[in-house]
Design the sequence.
């Protein structure tokens, strides 16, 4: 192998290593790109009203801050109060669940439950996790400087992208060969269209699921309905896995009152999720790319394993972008245009 090829291979390896080392920063930048893409749609709407871009950006950011701080002012005090109560109730709920399991174990033949220690082990591990998490909750809250810095980075990058998105877009496009730049611009438009559609659908879905969960938990008389409803709404951003996680605290708290309430909450969450999967999301996600459920689940698992909590929340937008590029470049531009060779009468190969 020539020296130039070795140098190129070494440079590729070093580049991959450096990109992996700064993966968290790249994910934060991707989050800023997604937010800026969504907010830029609002800016465009204001621009149609003949408002200058600078003023339109200021109005968009001001509206966003007003909505966020307004919701925090209304919900946050009660949410924190219920969250503190939750830290004390969950261990008792786990004890209640263990008691119910022991009751069943005493009435079902030992061959079914007596020799199976999986549930007991799961209960013990869950209880230890709850104790450790909520026991160190305020310590984690007080030492969250890194999260604040990351948030400031995302906000700053979002504002910079909003101020002059065209320059950054042209920089990305210029990294491709001249003959392919128009095609890249088209693919970026499709990514933008899909991301905005996903965000709008997810936002409506989060509000709908949170509202239905709150009403259902309130009717059933489950403790702390607000914190459980907010949890259900927020975790809606994580497909497949999020709804299952959000159901666990509500079921455990319902078991504190009566075993039948735990079953009722399980049924409630099941029907809410069926409504979301079969009716709500197909309507809301018409504007985004079609995501296969298996690929969505795998993306959540893979990105969470590779990038941690941030990857978990950004799994779907990452999948949307990756899938769009694969469909447009690999499938349409390469595979669909691939011409099979044909054999002439003399046995020579020619391209169609």
Sequence:
């Amino acid at each position: 192998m020539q020296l130039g090829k070795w140098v190129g291979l070494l440079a590729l390896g070093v580049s991959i290593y450096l990109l992996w080392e700064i993966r968290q920063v790249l994910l934060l930048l991707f989050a800023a790109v997604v937010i800026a893409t969504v907010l830029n749609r609002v800016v465009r709407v204001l621009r149609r009203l003949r408002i200058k871009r600078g003023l339109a950006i200021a109005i968009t950011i001001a509206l966003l801050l007003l909505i966020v701080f307004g919701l925090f002012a209304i919900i946050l005090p009660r949410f924190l109060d219920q969250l503190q109560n939750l830290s004390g109730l969950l261990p008792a709920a786990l004890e209640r669940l263990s008691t119910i399991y022991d009751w069943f174990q005493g009435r079902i033949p030992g061959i079914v439950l007596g020799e199976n220690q999986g549930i007991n082990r799961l209960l013990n591990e869950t209880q230890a996790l709850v104790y450790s998490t909520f026991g160190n909750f305020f310590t984690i809250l007080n030492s969250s400087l890194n999260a604040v810095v990351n948030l400031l980075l995302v906000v700053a990058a979002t504002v910079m992208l909003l101020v002059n998105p065209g320059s950054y877009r042209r920089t990305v496009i210029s990294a491709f060969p001249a003959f392919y730049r128009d095609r890249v611009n088209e693919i970026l438009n499709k990514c933008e269209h899909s991301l905005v559609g996903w965000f709008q659908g997810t936002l409506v879905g989060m509000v709908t699921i949170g509202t239905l969960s709150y009403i259902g938990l309130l009717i059933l008389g489950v403790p702390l309905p607000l914190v459980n409803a907010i949890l259900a709404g927020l975790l809606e951003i994580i497909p497949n896995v999020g709804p299952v996680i959000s159901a666990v605290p509500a079921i455990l708290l319902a078991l504190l009152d009566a075993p039948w309430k735990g079953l009722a909450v399980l049924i409630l969450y099941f029907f809410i999720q069926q409504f979301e999967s079969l009716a709500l999301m197909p309507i809301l996600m018409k504007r985004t790319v079609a995501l296969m459920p298996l690929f969505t689940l795998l993306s959540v698992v893979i990105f969470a394993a590779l990038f941690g909590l941030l990857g978990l929340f950004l799994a779907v937008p990452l999948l949307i972008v990756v899938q769009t590029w694969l469909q447009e470049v690999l499938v349409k531009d390469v595979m669909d245009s691939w011409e099979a060779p044909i054999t002439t009468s003399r046995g020579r190969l020619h391209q169609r």
User: Anything to note?
Assistant: Confidence is low (pLDDT under 50) at residues 110-116. The chain has 14 helices and two strands. Strands lie at 341-343, 349-351. The CA atoms of residues 138 and 267 lie 33 Å apart.
